[in-house]
Design brief:
The chain has helices at 20-28, 47-52, 61-67, 79-82, 101-110, 131-148, 178-189, 201-210, 222-228, 306-327, 329-335, 337-340, 353-358, and strands spanning 2-5, 32-36, 56-58, 70-72, 90-93, 113-116, 170-174, 193-198, 215-219, 234-237, 263-266, 287-290, 293-296, 343-346, 349-350. With 362 residues, the protein is α/β, with parallel strands linked by helices. Helix 10 crosses helix 11. The radius of gyration is 21 Å and the shape is globular.
């Protein structure tokens, strides 16, 4: 199969979808790999590394899309790429269609097969291609939240872990999945006073047994969240409903309960966001303020640490990419029901139920 790796062009997206080591594995299996010039440079992988692995370098993004049977990316195509996608081409990347009608319409019109990392499932209903980036995003949410609690950044001027004689900041993590677990671990490690909320009692029990003692668990309800907000300094929105739009767990009205300079980090912004007042931001302009509360809603948080993120992502995606290249998407998906769940759009039709339910007119 002919595989194309374009350079990511979304704002401050520094990751690349395939490492030279991954390219080497695909070439070793008889496939052709074409990488756009400098696609890996921001992740620490110069063109020379890809050439040494057996890949070929193409000068433009147009050339990559034009030659490839399968495009491997990190983030969804943006508007300038829509016209480059060809009928029958396989796109293997994060899509998050639930939060982007324009992208959904463009991919339907293209006639391409869109296989989304975020809805591929493992044997135990885990999300193996979402997990590594969720781990990165969860940990970074605390790093970024701590930064924007600093006064020069617009925050309250609080040190997350406090110091002897001064109480630490209070952190509320909403959602006990991979993002929430990693956020709670990071916040606890910095010495914060952490509360983790979820609607699954079995999940809360498991987390209570494994997380540090400065993490408390809380059943997630509107009432309980409202009770926490007046004394909370940093809120991490970490709720995910696979393939579907995220519910708004903090409304505009609830912001009035928070003190000025408090920080919200919406890790679920790719799927519409956990907070009613959220809208996507970029690493170039990561925050905005509503009613005195700082909102951090960067849609590609792991893009800020591309060396770590690219390696973690390729570790997860490469086995699937090899199977897709070896067998073609139809045979590979027929042999693996979990991979088949990654299919979101095929031949101009939405085939993933949660996305189809959002766009009944498409």
């Amino acid at each position: 199969m002919i595989i194309g790796v374009p350079k990511e062009i979304k704002n401050n997206e520094n990751r690349v979808a395939l490492t030279p080591a991954g390219a080497k594995e695909l070439v070793r299996k008889g496939h052709s790999v074409y990488v756009q010039h400098t696609a890996g440079i921001n992740s620490g992988f110069p063109d020379e590394d890809y050439v040494a692995a057996g890949a070929q370098i193409l000068p433009t993004i147009e050339a990559v899309y034009d030659i490839a049977e399968m495009i491997i990316k990190v983030k969804e195509p943006i508007e300038s790429e829509y016209a480059l996608v060809k009928k029958g081409q396989l796109l293997f990347t994060y899509f998050h269609f639930a939060s982007d009608r324009e992208l959904t319409e463009a991919m339907l019109h293209s006639g391409a097969t869109c296989l989304a990392y975020e809805t591929v499932e493992g044997p135990n209903h885990s999300l193996p291609l979402l997990i590594p980036m969720s781990e990165v995003a969860g940990r970074m949410s605390i790093q970024e939240g701590a930064r924007f609690l600093e006064k020069p950044q617009g925050g309250k001027g609080m040190l997350l872990g406090g110091v002897p004689g001064v109480k630490p900041a209070k952190v509320l993590v909403i959602g006990g999945g991979i993002v929430g677990h990693n956020a709670a671990l990071m916040a606890a490690g910095l010495g914060a006073d952490v509360t983790l909320a979820d609607i699954s009692l079995p999940r809360l029990r498991a987390l209570a047994e494994t997380l540090p003692k400065n993490v408390k668990t809380l059943y997630s309800s509107t009432h309980n969240i409202e009770q926490e907000l007046p004394t909370t300094d940093l809120v991490i929105g970490a709720v995910l409903i696979p393939g579907a739009k995220t519910p708004h767990l903090i409304t505009r009205e609830m912001l009035k309960l928070m003190k000025p300079g408090s920080v919200l980090v919406d890790v679920a912004i790719d799927q519409g966001g956990c907070f009613e007042t959220s809208h996507p931001t970029t690493h170039a302009e990561p925050i905005f303020e509503v009613d005195g509360v700082i909102h951090y809603c960067v849609a590609n948080i792991p893009g800020a640490v591309p060396q770590t993120s690219t390696l973690a992502l390729t570790n997860a995606t490469l086995p699937y990419a090899i199977r897709l290249a070896d067998q073609g998407w139809e045979k590979a998906c027929a042999a693996d029901p979990g991979l088949q769940l990654g299919l979101n759009i095929v031949d101009g039709k939405i085939v993933y139920p949660a996305v189809a339910a959002l766009y009944p007119d498409l």
